[in-house]
Amino acid sequence: MGGCFSKPKPVEVKIEVVVPEKEKERGKMSPNGMASPVANCKPNGTTKHLCDESLALSAYQNPRDFVEAAVCHVRDLENGQMREVEVGGGKALLIKEHGEYSAISHKCPHYGAPLVKGVLSGGRVRCPWHGACFSIATGDIEDFPGLDSLEKFQVRVEKDKVIIRANKQALQTQKRTRMMSKCTGLSNYSAGVTSVLIIGAGPAGLVCAETLRQEGFGDRIVMCTVDKHQPYDRPKLSKSLESTAEQITLRSKEFFQKYDIELLKEKEVVTVDIKTKTAIFRDGLKMVYKNLLIATGSSPKLLNCKGTDVENVFYLRTPEDANCIAKLANNKNAIVVGASYVGMEVAAYLAEKAHSVSVVSQEDIPFRKALGEKVGRAIMKMFDNNRIKFYMLNEVSEFRGQQGKLKEVVLNSGKVLRADVCIIGTGVSPATSFLKHSGINMDSKGFIPVSKTMQTNVPGVFAAGDVVTFPLALRSNKKVNVPHWQMAHMHGRIAALNMLGQATEINTVPYFWTAMFGKSIRYAGHGEGFDSVIIQGDLDELKFVAFYTKSEEVIAVASMNYDPIVSKVAEVFGSGRTIRKRDVETGDMSWLIGKGTQQL
Q1: Hey, how many other C-beta atoms are within 10 angstroms of the C-beta on 317?
Q2: For residue 337, which of 427, 414, 406 has the smallest C-alpha distance?
Q3: What gap in Å lies between CA 219 and CA 196, rounded to an integer?
Q4: What is the spatial order of strands in the sheet that 468-472 belongs to?
Q5: Predicted confidence (pLDDT) per residue in 180-195, tens digit
Q6: pLDDT of residue 18
Q7: pTM of the model
């Protein structure tokens, strides 16, 4: 599909390239590691090539700001190997592939995972924890989660010694923000007109906006959200309940101002008119757009029982909810309704803080549908060992209060549980009710079907994240909903590229993680409809890998304490190669093992 932008009526827009401060101080790249050129920018959104980054940075190089060190002998690394090396008090990741050396940051910018323990394949490194991928030639992020890219360092060989030259500040920061264009003609726009309107400020919306600017787009971008905060790391709400909104913010207010991405907070769109290309807000504001991205995420499924109006019953939606739950649960009785990922993460977090934690669920085993019975039982046992009480095959029939505050939770079995705080995690549905009469197609569950380019049935209207079903290449282009943090990032990027006419189809491997009691489960693929589970390792010791198969083919993998197996399988999935059931039944995983890594 071609580009969706057209030249606006008499508006003169000037573009300037913004070089982040830390980019100005970076050193010269190695010949095989030049940072990828940012697209040149012409007025009104036509994008091709901006200035070469090396030229933009040449004026800022100061020899005193650099350090270099001989880090190994040329024969110390084989092709396909990585090594974490010391460089002037800092560290870098040295890589050898196809006979050439590269050096990049050694930590993943997302949560700081050591990339030396990740997977090197096809010119990129995949994070061992959450699957983000980075080019070894540029350091640019190529798959998610996370927003920032890696630093790239100069490498040369002299007298059989491998030498790295690096900027001192870059060695400390270990990450960088890619160059972005900036629109300096915003004053020419009326308040109710924008080139791009993004509804939702989660990862899909944020990555869409940043990608547009990274690709040199110079027209107005408006992002709106019902939240009162800057975009934040939502997965941390259930994993770290005491974190404040400021502590989990993804991009600061200053970042949005610097790159002319307008963020309208506490603004709710109530309808979209596709004929006039207008979004109408609850407060009466109308915004005319040329291109629209719908990335509104999910809404919680409400519990239908008596007493839901008592205080201290929560649907975990905001940092304030999380903080309040943590405070109320301290040395008190906490009830979690629903053995979902969110519910179980909250229960695990509260285990050491609350007097008691109980989980109520309609299921008999947590995660049975997603991870299978055996893995679910192993996780349930881990919770049992941490004083979590389960009330399975049960539902809440009533919340009872005293002086308006929660005091008891009554189950349909007749059991009455003492409760000071309750967290409900019984599932979500797409937040798309405002589109019912818009002409934008939705299925019976409220999901928006999109193409591989994230395009809806309406030209110029894209959708991304939890609200969509899209063709998943891994499952023969079956339309699926994948409500993962990583996938929402990629949806946003693909939507932005196609808005710019850079025809790009989504072709990424779903990657998911959950964390409980200091242990993480990694998951890659899409296991919906699996008919068998092949488990290698020891479930009792919580050190295992589980392969999910359907019709003799592996369609997903999960692991605990088995890194980087999930990232390795994700790379195999991404290459298009089929993994057969017989490949994983024997326990011989040599088919996955490469040259490995080294660490000094």
Answers
A1: 16
A2: 427
A3: 8
A4: 448-449, 468-472, 478-480
A5: 998 866 666 788 999 9
A6: 52
A7: 0.89
Q: Note the helical H segments in 93-248.
A: 168-173, 203-214, 236-239
Nearest to 470 by CA among 485, 486, 453, 484: 453
DSSP 278-333: EEEETTS-EEE-SEEEE---EEEPPP-SBTTTSBTEEE--SHHHHHHHHHHHTTSE
Give pLDDT, residue 11.
38
Per-position DSSP letters for 342-363, written without gaps between them? HHHHHHHHHTTTSSEEEEEESS
**Cβ 465 vs Cβ 492: under 8 Å:** yes
Cα 600 from Cα 113, distance rounded (Å) = 16
Residues 435 and 446 sit within 8 Å (Cβ to Cβ): no
Distance, CA of 415 to CA of 452 (rounded, Å): 49
Q: In whole angstroms, what separates CA 427 from the centre of its chain? A: 19
Q: How far is CA 272 from CA 71, 90, 197, 289, in A?
A: 58, 52, 11, 10
Strands 333-337 and 356-361: parallel
> What is the per-residue pLDDT for 373?
97
| Tens-digit pLDDT profile for residues 436-486 | 999 999 999 999 999 999 999 999 999 999 999 999 999 999 999 999 999
Q: Is 64 left (phi over 0), alpha (psi -120 to 50) or beta?
A: alpha
Q: Give the three-class secondary structure for 81.
A: strand
Distance CA 294, CA 430 (A): 11
- Exposed, middle or buried: residue 514 (CB in 10 Å: 0-12, 13-18, 19+)? buried
Tokens at residue 556, please? Answer: 């997903």
User: Cα–Cα distance between 447 and 465 in angstroms, integer?
Assistant: 10
The pLDDT value recorded for residue 235 is 96
Q: Both tokens of residue 580?
A: 């057969």
Q: How far apart are the first and last CA of the chain?
A: 49
Q: Per DSSP, what are the bridge partners of residue 16?
A: 182
Q: How far is CA 282 from CA 262, 442, 446, in A?
A: 18, 22, 21
Low-confidence ranges of the chain (pLDDT < 70): 1-61, 184-188, 591, 593-600
Q: Side-chain half-sphere of 56: how many Cα atoms within 13 Å?
A: 23
- Supply the pLDDT for residue 516: 96
- Cβ-contact 522, 509 below 8 angstroms: no
**Is 333:418 a contact under the CB 8 Å cutoff?**
yes
User: Rounded to the nearest 5 degrees, what angle is found at the Cα of 178, between the Cα atoms of 172 and 182?
Assistant: 130
* Distance from the Cα of residue 334 to its chain's centroid: 29
Whether the CB-CB separation of 370 and 482 falls below 8 Å is answered with: no
Predicted local distance difference test score (pLDDT) of residue 50: 40
Instruction: Map tokens 């109320």 to a residue.
Output: 328
Q: Which of 429, 465, 480 is nearest to 294 (CA)?
A: 465
Cβ–Cβ contacts within 10 Å for residue 250, how many? Answer: 17
Q: What are phi and psi of 147, to 5 degrees?
A: -115, -25
Nearest CA-CA partner of 32 in 108, 99, 82, 84: 99
Integer CA distances (angstroms), 361 to 162, 358, 383, 387, 426, in order = 58, 10, 14, 17, 8
Q: What does the alpha-carbon distance between residue 460 and residue 457 come to, in Å, rounded to a whole number? A: 9
Q: Report d(CA 536, CA 56) in Å as an integer.
A: 51
> Which tens digit of pLDDT belongs to each residue from 325-340?
999 999 999 999 999 9
